[in-house]
Structure formats: structure tokens, C-alpha cells
TrEMBL record:
Pfam families: THF_DHG_CYH (PF00763), THF_DHG_CYH_C (PF02882). Signal peptide: none annotated. Residues 140-279 form the Tetrahydrofolate dehydrogenase/cyclohydrolase NAD(P)-binding domain. Keywords: Amino-acid biosynthesis, Histidine biosynthesis, Hydrolase, Methionine biosynthesis, Multifunctional enzyme, NADP, One-carbon metabolism, Oxidoreductase, Purine biosynthesis. InterPro entries: Aminoacid_DH-like_N_sf, NAD(P)-bd_dom_sf, THF_DH/CycHdrlase, THF_DH/CycHdrlase_cat_dom, THF_DH/CycHdrlase_NAD-bd_dom. The keyword NADP applies. This is Bifunctional protein FolD. It catalyses: (6R)-5,10-methylene-5,6,7,8-tetrahydrofolate + NADP(+) = (6R)-5,10-methenyltetrahydrofolate + NADPH; (6R)-5,10-methenyltetrahydrofolate + H2O = (6R)-10-formyltetrahydrofolate + H(+). The gene is folD. GO terms for molecular function: methenyltetrahydrofolate cyclohydrolase activity; methylenetetrahydrofolate dehydrogenase (NADP+) activity. CDD domains: NAD_bind_m-THF_DH_Cyclohyd. NADP(+) binds at residues 166-168, 232. Homodimer. Belongs to the tetrahydrofolate dehydrogenase/cyclohydrolase family.
């Protein structure tokens, strides 16, 4: 029997509608809407698409988005000043600086400048540390969204073997911390990992975030496993595909995310969730 699909599009839409209801309830009580500052530097086409989708999601969630778009020549000092202004602005609850930044801007420096209580990406070392200590505040959106998908399987990760493929700061590392917090036994694999296929074959939960099209083979998947594909890759024919060979893996897995329509929309609805949470923490 082929795997059940984890429909990120539908689950993210439910999440956005629930946020909208909460926002409307607060508006009716005379409160203001949550507000997200979206900062885009340069003209990376993929970043422009992500930022547009985030702003459209804000509209659907009832969140006010405020755009700050500057050319790639924008200086690091000017960006620091902008972030400091947004930190001070009582009308702004969340600050999102889209990555990657141009080469002359140090992303770590910018992330550390963001007030951790407005860091809706969950990238600030303070928020990362809170997650590592099992006392999360604002959690990185892609892994947090993947945990929401996992919850929808009804399977408790406690005691299960999870393999995370990829150790990036945005996906693999925080994903491992999320799964560990849910009491899974976590193995983090990366480009130096030996016998990767064997490690994946032992996993009840597989999360792939490496950015390599169809990298994870169907015969690496343990029968019945939950497969969450974070990858989004464009093939030479223009079509999108994930890091997992979907057609082969779905014959074996118990649950699997499609690409597109799996983890991607969850990242965006989780950003809306984080923006509401940041707003509620600042203005209970
Ligand atoms: N670039 C790729 N993914 C992300 C993300 O989740 N947040 C930000 N700010 N930039 C990104």
C-alpha cells in the first residue's frame, strides 16, 4: 500500500485560518494586528519569490506586513541601523531578514542584532540556545513546521529512531534539536557521513534537507517510515522536486510529504504562528 500523504498545503491553510481567527478576535477587542517587518536586500530571484509568498500569507493570516527592500549595494552598517530601528519600533512584532544576504554583509552579525523576542525566524543564538535547552521561545520555522506535520501522523516520536540528513543551521541542526526534544533517538548525517544508506534504512523518521534532487533513494526507506522532505530543487526541465525520490519512496514509506506542497507551505504558516506568538508575548 503506498504511503499516506502529509498534505502541507492543507495543514498550513488550517494553521493560517486559526491564526486569522485569533487576530480577528483581538481586533474586536480593540487591539492592533500583529506586524511583521520583511527585509529583502538584493535581487536574488528565489528570495523574491519566498518574500512574496510570506507577504501573501500575512494578508491571509490578518498580519500586517511592512516591506523594506533595498538593492544589493545596501551597506552592512545601514542594515544594522534598520534592524535597530525595527527593534525599537513598538508597532513591529517580528523582524525577518531574508537570507542569503549579499557577500559584503555578515549574516551572523545581522541575526545577532535582531531583538531575540522579535526573531520570528528563530535564528538568533539566544533562540537556538533555548531550543537546545528544551525551553524554546521562537523556533526556526522549517523544523518547527516539520514537527507540526509529524504531529499530524498521530505517531509519537518518543523512542523512535530519527535520521536527519543535512546539518545546516536553518534546517538540519534545529531539526535534530526538535526531534531530540520530542524524545526521538536522533542521528544527524552530513557530507562526511559513512554508510548513509544503512543509517537511513534504520530510521523510523527520515528528514532530508540537503538540496540535492532525488538524493534519498526509495530502497533506503524502512517500510512504514515517516519521510519528511525539506528539499526544494529545480530540475533542468523546470519542474520542482525534493531531496527524496518521491515515486520510489512512497511505495515503501508509511507517510511522506510531497514536493511542492509539503514542508514548504508549513515553513510559511509557522512564520505566521511565530509572528502571532511574538506579538502576544510583547502585548499579552
Ligand atoms: N532563506 C531560506 N530560508 C529562509 C528562512 O526560513 N528565513 C530567512 N530569513 N531566510 C531564508
Amino acid at each position: 500500500m503506498p504511503a499516506q500523504l502529509l498534505d502541507g498545503k492543507q495543514i498550513s491553510e488550517q494553521q493560517i485560518q486559526a491564526i486569522r481567527s485569533r487576530v480577528e478576535q483581538r481586533l474586536a477587542e480593540g487591539r492592533r494586528a500583529p506586524a511583521l517587518a520583511v527585509v529583502l536586500i538584493g535581487d536574488d530571484p528565489a528570495s523574491a519569490v519566498y518574500v512574496r509568498n510570506k507577504k501573501l500569507a500575512c494578508e491571509r493570516a490578518g498580519i500586517r506586513s511592512v516591506s523594506f527592500e533595498y538593492p544589493a549595494s545596501f551597506s552592512e552598517a545601514a542594515l544594522i541601523e534598520l534592524v535597530q530601528q525595527l527593534n525599537q519600533d513598538p508597532e513591529i512584532d517580528g523582524i525577518l531578514v531574508q537570507l542569503p544576504l549579499p557577500d559584503h554583509i555578515d549574516p551572523e552579525l545581522i541575526i545577532e542584532t535582531i531583538n531575540p523576542h522579535k526573531d520570528v525566524d528563530g535564528f538568533h543564538p539566544y533562540n537556538f540556545g533555548r531550543l537546545a535547552l528544551k525551553m524554546p521561545l521562537l523556533r526556526p520555522c522549517t523544523p518547527f513546521g516539520a514537527m507540526t506535520l509529524l504531529q499530524h501522523t498521530g505517531v509519537d516520536p518518543a523512542g523512535l529512531d530519527a535520521v536527519v540528513i543535512g546539518a545546516s543551521n536553518i534546517v538540519g541542526r534545529p531539526m535534530a534539536l526538535e526531534l531530540l526534544m520530542a524524545r526521538a533517538t536522533v542521528t544527524v548525517c552530513h557530507s562526511k557521513t559513512r554508510q548513509l544508506a544503512d543509517k537511513v534504512r534504520s530510521a523510523d523518521i527520515v528528514v532530508a534537507g540537503v538540496g540535492r534532487p532525488n538524493f534519498v533513494q526509495g530502497d533506503w526507506i524502512k517500510p512504514g517510515a515517516i519521510v519528511i522532505d525539506i528539499g526544494i530543487n529545480r530540475l533542468p526541465n523546470g519542474r520542482l522536486c525534493g531531496d527524496v525520490d518521491f515515486e520510489a519512496a512512497r511505495q515503501v514509506a508509511g507517510w511522506i510529504t510531497p514536493v511542492p506542497g509539503g514542508a514548504g507551505p508549513m515553513t510559511i504558516s509557522t512564520l505566521m504562528h511565530n509572528t502571532l506568538e511574538a506579538h502576544l508575548a510583547l502585548y499579552p
